[in-house]
Amino acid sequence: MVDAAFGPEQGQRPNLADPRAAYLELVRRKRMYGGILLLVFIALMASGWRLAEDRNAGGFLDGLHQIFAFPAEVLSEAWEKRALLPAIFWDHIPALVETINIAAVATLLGALAAMSLSLLATRGLARWPRLIPLFRRTMDALRAIPEIVIALVLIYILGGGPVPAVIAIALHTGGALGKLFSEVAENADLKPVEGLASVGANWSQRMWLGVIPQVAPNWLSYALLRFEINVRASAILGFVGEGGIGHDLKLAMQWGQGRYDEVVAIFALLFVTIVVIDQVSDRYRQKLVKGN
Asked: Signal peptide: which range, if any (predicted)?
């Protein structure tokens, strides 16, 4: 017998059989659930494979040996015209600048919206606590709809061009950054906020002077990371008529053989740009968060 307050009675040993049996039972249960999930995953993969194979124009396995045929054709033509690549790079610099501008403006607008939504949706900081679920569901809705879906809708309203792309990316960015900003704001120290409230500061002043100085480094880090993502998104949206280097890439690929050198040049230019942005933003994010 074991006394809860003083431990096992003198001359008796604690009974370890029950905890060991409970542990073994827990392990068996986890293994069983893991096996069931594995079987469900395999069944879903197999059914999805069969469905895709039935709906595909040709068999996947039948065309698997040709997977490198198109890339080889593109690269061979680009190699033959390699002397023209520097001029092609230069010709597409304006489109690349437009793509970066779309991403930058969309990131700025989305980050500003995310700042407001995150503070209004954070427990302990919200101006209207009863409306926290409303602001959280708003961020969920903005985050759930892909940029390309929003852009396709806006094309019918505003027509093609960079403006629908900016709006589409900014809306999605607001929802994505809003959640991240809110999680950072929840860990902020509330003592400065309470001190400002004690001297009569309003809600905006408490947020601006008491919360934002604490969370600004992490917020800027997340915004830089989102800018990298938005550069890729703005290039992808070019395929649906939103301008930028993605639109040039779409035209070159639609033209087909004879302009594959342009396809390779655009891919290389976009790859180098994303790598440079990634390296620069990673360096500044490390400085913001860790102070290195």
From this structure: none
